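Protein in question quoted for reference:
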Amino acid sequence: MGAVELRNKLIEKFSQFIEDDSKLLALDGIFDSLNTKDSPSLVSETHYKIVEERRRKWKTGETKARSWEIVKLELMQKHGF
């Protein structure tokens, strides 16, 4: 699909959206998210380093972990979830 066809398709879709107030709010949120510049992460660099260190320990076998499937099975057996 070329740029002209895509532009015409979007114009048609937008004309349908602007007739519905709830869709207008959603569309406004999309435009806001497209127009915002990169913002700093909500996760601190310190936390990323903690996660990296824990992952390194897990990969080298310094700590043990269980798969999510095993954890779910244990929860189901113990608590009936």
